[in-house]
What we know:
By secondary structure, the protein is of the alpha/beta class. It contains 15 helices and 13 strands.
Amino acid sequence: MPPLQTILKQRIRSDVLSMQAYTVQDATGMVKLDAMENPYTLPEALQQKLGQRLGQLALNRYPDGRTHDLRRALADYANMPVDHDIMLGNGSDELISLLSLACAQPADADGKRPVVLAPVPGFVMYSVSALLQGLDFVGVPLTPDFALDVAAMEKAIAQHQPAIVYLAYPNNPTATLWDESGMASVINAAAQTGSIVVIDEAYQPFASRSYIDHIRNQPEQHSHVLLMRTLSKFGLAGVRLGYMMGPSALIAEIDKVRPPYNISVLNCECALFALEHAEVFAQQATAIRTERTHLIAALRTLPGITVWNSDANMVLIRLDQAQAVFEKLKAKSILIKNVSKMHILLDNCLRLTVGTAEENKQLLAALQEIL
């Protein structure tokens, strides 16, 4: 029998061998401000109701038609455009992976593979899922102030004719909500090359606007557009439930590569329960937006920090020696995200999740002491 290392080299893809697995920072005992989670839990009374409801589920059976109830509930909640359908994923990550899988056609005679294109810096899973499914990834840099470079996007789309164009609205990790006219120009450029556009509205609960109204009001101009959202930022990060809306014919084709039973009965029932109590989560989102305003204002009083406006539940800052500041915060049991190595435009940048009033107070006090 050959040694394990020989088996790994022979049987595991070389690009996988060279990758690093996604790591989650240990948050034990920390003020956790690194992952854009909703910091609020369910009220105790709702926790008890949910627990009773989940305890009655038939865990010995595969998921049934209850997922159709969830699809209808999400469509109503989002006010889904007419002639559209909705698809569920185990988080948005799975939907992104399934999109790549559905578009992963073989390379042509010249060896050219399909392309996934997105502004960078952006959500890392756009590129990871593309490369793992055998597509190429093309990143188009944002402007130095993290605006969408419309001319560069249009040029790249014309050159590469991508299978998929991602537009995060707002963007992660910059928390930017791009100009609507620029978005429209890029979406139109993608239409000219027959590219699918995915508008990723993961942070919609905290944004000042959504692109869904444009899709609803101009269906013909958006027949190639999918809108993706998640319940993670709604307040259910642990439930892992993403959903994607789009023209019914387009959703039907992508849905063919979805694994059967990809949404567990627990995920499904938790999501339905949350939608039935949407007003509770809406209040939490309002509190987070209020705290975001206070946090940004306070950060701007500290010396040596550049703070960008935010339409998400995170704030991007730049300061000297970001890694040292990250480590000092960690030593004070405050966990944030150092994004300075993700892209050259993010040099010396840190990403702060908006927490509760008390968590933000601790963060600000620690930063003031460090600086």
